[in-house]
Amino acid sequence: MTSSCTYDLAKTSDAEEIVVADADEKSARKLVELVDDDRVRFESVDATDADDIARVLSGADYAVNGLPYQFEENVLDAILSVGGIDAVDLNAFEFDAVLGRSAAFADADCRLWFANGGLVSTIVLGLLGCRQFDSVSDVSFYWGMWRLLTQTTPGLTDTVTYEHDPAVDERVRWKEGEVIDGLPAFGDRREFAFPEPIGEQETYVITHPEPITFPKASVADETGVERIITRGVWHPEWERYERTLHAMDAFDADPVSVRGAGDVDPVAVTQRQVKRAGAVEEWQPPADLSPETDWTPQTILSAEVTGTVDGHRETAVRHLTQPFPFFGGHDITLLREYGCYVGAPLSVTLQLLAEGAVDAEGVFVTETSGLDPDRYVDEMERRGFELSRERRSTG
Q1: Which of 92, 113, 134 is the last residue of a domain?
Q2: Which of 241, 302, 353, 367 has the most CB atoms around its CB within 10 Å?
Q3: Is there a single domain that holds both residue 42 and residue 71?
Q4: Residue 98: phi, psi to the nearest 5?
Q5: Which residues contact 86 (CB under 8 A, 6 or more apart)?
Q6: Within this chain, do residues 107 and 138 fall inside the same structural domain, yes or no?
Q7: Last residue of a domain, one of 94, 113, 132
Q8: Are 218 and 330 in the same domain?
Q9: Helix axis angle, 154-164 relative to 236-247, nearest 10°?
Q10: Can you spell out the DSSP letters for 234-269?
């Protein structure tokens, strides 16, 4: 996902140097070669070692964290130890723990824009929707994540299955000032019409944090927002896979004893096979990336806001659709193209931080950043993202 951030930073920023730090040297060097800019270089990093991350960050003014969430604490420790760094972070786990470091970040002259990436886009769509109304009853966020089961990466495979784990309590709704957690997987189903190629789908609650963060927005308070929920939908191949795990009670299953391999976790075995099926090392021209379908893997982000304006009750819907190809037609992998819905916002927000367009301190989220939503949309449209709007009377 951060490949497209690197690409965009090289194409649109005036950074003096851009360091791609990764444990996967082969893949990272291929990205550096694709970007073809003397300011971009590779450096190896061991993400399990906070000191090694700090070594790479030494001398940096800005950082982008695209590491899997398991390494979040190491990244935060490294940023604090170096000091004087502004950073954007696509992770959105352990909210209280990360936001609890805000004072420490401010003391170290650091700023961290947490829950970044695609979440910035959904929040901006919600902010723009609420602006249209005198009062708001409902804000619904929708993630249309449309790719085949075999079109995945290890990190995305783990994330999707985590979102469907029945034991996870991060599926939430916000109602009249209260966060209601522990919603069931595949719960709160509702029909929603995305633009093509996703179209009308039955969506369900997912583990995204908009119901927790959006109430922090001043416009949410000013319009008296009553209810907030985030729903999403994966391609039917993914839903069948996750429902199969549920049907076989795989999440609660005891390890299985396998001769020669010891105790084996059933979910880990199936996850490993999905990851193997999605492993693609060959970079191809964009036109050759998705031979199984007539469309390229797509993520469409939407916000639906219902409220009252001038005494009339209406619903406003906004969709943000990602472009294809994002990498200028260069040979690339399917999932790197797919990931631009995360990578482009990381680049945009980092550059806004650098330009002084965000006045928040310490650790903050989009709702408390002071971001101008219109400026953000303008920057995304410059990169080929398409904003579409619908509005209808609801009585």
Answers
A1: 113
A2: 302
A3: yes
A4: -70, -45
A5: 61, 62, 63, 110, 111, 112, 350, 353, 354
A6: no
A7: 113
A8: yes
A9: 60
A10: E-HHHHHHHHHHHHTTGGGPPPEEETTTEEE-HHHH
* Angle, in degrees to the nearest 10, between helices 25-35 and 2-12: 30
Among 18, 66, 105, 1, CA closest to 335:
1
Its sign, for the CA torsion 34, 119, 362, 45, is negative
Q: Is residue 41 part of a domain?
A: yes
List the CATH number of the domain containing 234.
3.30.360.10
- One domain, residues 200 and 239: yes
Termini Cα distance of the chain: 42
Instruction: Return the bridge partners of 362, or none.
Output: 111
- How many structural domains is the chain composed of? 2
Q: Say if residue 107 is in the same domain as residue 127.
A: no
Question: Packing angle between helix 340-354 and helix 373-382, nearest 10 degrees?
Answer: 120
Domain containing 178: what range? Answer: 118-334+371-393
For the whole model, what pTM was predicted? 0.96
Kindly state the DSSP code that residue 286 receives in the 8-state scheme.
G
Tokens of 374: 């219109």
**CB contact at 8 A, 66 and 89:** no
pLDDT in tens, the chain (395 residues): 899 999 999 999 999 999 999 999 999 999 999 999 999 999 999 999 999 999 999 999 999 999 988 899 999 999 999 999 999 999 988 888 999 999 999 999 999 999 999 999 999 999 999 999 999 999 999 999 999 998 888 888 998 999 999 999 999 999 999 999 999 999 999 999 999 999 999 999 999 999 999 999 999 999 999 999 999 999 999 999 999 999 999 999 998 888 877 888 999 999 999 999 888 778 999 989 888 888 899 999 999 999 999 999 999 999 999 999 999 999 999 989 999 999 999 999 999 999 999 999 999 999 999 999 999 999 999 999 999 999 988 86
Strand-pairing partners, residue 312, are: 309
Chain-centre distance for alpha carbon 250: 27
User: Domain containing 39 — which CATH number?
Assistant: 3.40.50.720
Task: Locate 265 and state its tokens.
Answer: 């976790």
Give 328's contacts (C-beta < 8 A, 6+ positions apart): none
- Tell me the helix, strand and coil percentages in the chain, rounded to 5: 40, 25, 35
Same domain, residue pair 207 and 262 = yes
Spatial separation of the C-alpha atoms in residues 376 and 147, rounded to whole Å: 26
